[in-house]
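Recall the central idea of this unit: under ordinary conditions, the amino acid sequence of a chain determines the structure it adopts. In this exercise we apply that idea directly, starting from the sequence alone.
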Amino acid sequence: MSFTFVSGALALDFAGTVKHRRLDRVDLLVAPADLARWTVEAGLLTTAPPADDAGLARAVELREAIYRSATAALHGAPPAPGDRDLINESAADAPPVPRLAPTSDGPDTAERAGDLASALAAVARSAVDLLGGPSAAALKECEAPTCTRVYLDTSRRRSRRWCDMRECGNRAKAAAFRARHRTPTH
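Accordingly, the structure predicted from this sequence is:
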């Protein structure tokens, strides 16, 4: 399954690796290999790091702490102390290290090296910056009936309603169109 990066913040995209949390929950991180692939697709690391069940369990704990903290912030509440502690603890690890690497046929390329803990540190630092800064006021939850993705509404009027116009927004607009154009039955 493919990952989506539409939330506007790395930490929220990580929390979004669970779809439909309230109904028909779909977890996109079911195996350590899924987590390793996410770190590359998110641009955190150039090469997938070794990941095991313990690393996956730690990542899932962090993901859930971020989600709970973001939903608390939606309602003007602080994170639960345990969630705050877990985010801060994860953020204390060293983040991935960027470096310029030569290529055989052109300009250098940027690479990011590190292990799973460094990738999770980058995610946790994103959560710290988001939840502890002015962007927390722009948090919203998608209005699609089954979607539970939290995202940053950076639209000019703060009027964005869906996490992603291509999926949730398109479905909602198509349903509204069908409802308006439904022929009445007698």
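The chain has one domain: 10-100+109-180.
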